């Protein structure tokens, strides 16, 4: 079941990364690299609708079918509607399925309600222009007839009265009569939200001013911050605008469907269950890796590069069960960073270390735009290419990133050196390969051996525990 490597999508042109032509070799092109499909590791993995033979048409069809069950009667022909998206959706499988869902939502709203004033608002994190790049790349500015815009957490805010006091959203998010929450179920920063209110999270993040969204990062830490997003969503101001939610439902294998509902909390239960079920096995399997050289090779900032649907930040914390709410502090969050002194040592006992199985990181291709020096402070790192090192040195969020790294001119040189230093030939490529892990042969054989044991443990022990912690009864709803 070891197969030829799955070639990742090509580099993306962006102001946050080096030019695509400067990415001279991908991890999948290295000697002895193979791929392991998710379905070979976990034969019971949810079937995917995309990628597939029918292409993006299946996304359009699934979105239409799901929106048929949604009540849109509140939207009148003369009203305005903001379709709310997030930059994260465009990093999934190249972004095309998410863009197609956004197009279809606009079409359905227009057809069913007669409303023509339909806008697209796409939230972003710390790369303030990233959403604008995606909007133009997928032609969404034209599709939404010039009414598509990226919004940043430093844009003009709007005060929202909530049951815990005044919080702040982004004014452009809420400048329409109605809003449609168009997101995805990818677990992404489970080290922050811990798969609690995952579907509600954007109301405290992508749609919120930086003063409010910082509660996730620094003020309250993992688990505790989740009530902020719920407080904003439950506010009379937001409830009077909320029409429905439409989600691209993701798994480590790809898109498993589209889900839509007028009741966001009902949808949230389904998102919670699917996230624990579908990502739980892959994340637990990655936690079984005893040693590896990790190659970053994906067009996203360091913590957000992908492997089988799991971001690198979660692999950096895979020595802990990030789904287990009894475990209070993940090995990586901004909140965790605050427990380290200037000498790089923990200030108190009990701070979990970054995953010790990661022996060396090779930064072959990953963006700046997100503070990532924490990783190079804790994991030996090699940056490939002077242009990439210079990009990071110019990035105000990463001015110390390369201070703890070595520079290699070519990927092959970096790999040879990493193998000698790490004493292992196990390689894991974080390159976003669709439905698969690109790995060295030795690591592929290791994962195939461990996967059945992990599957049984998650099904019999961990999944019931995770769901009980979140008050989820899987028998209450139909799951795609």
From TrEMBL:
<protein>
    <recommendedName>
        <fullName>DUF2088 domain-containing protein</fullName>
    </recommendedName>
</protein>
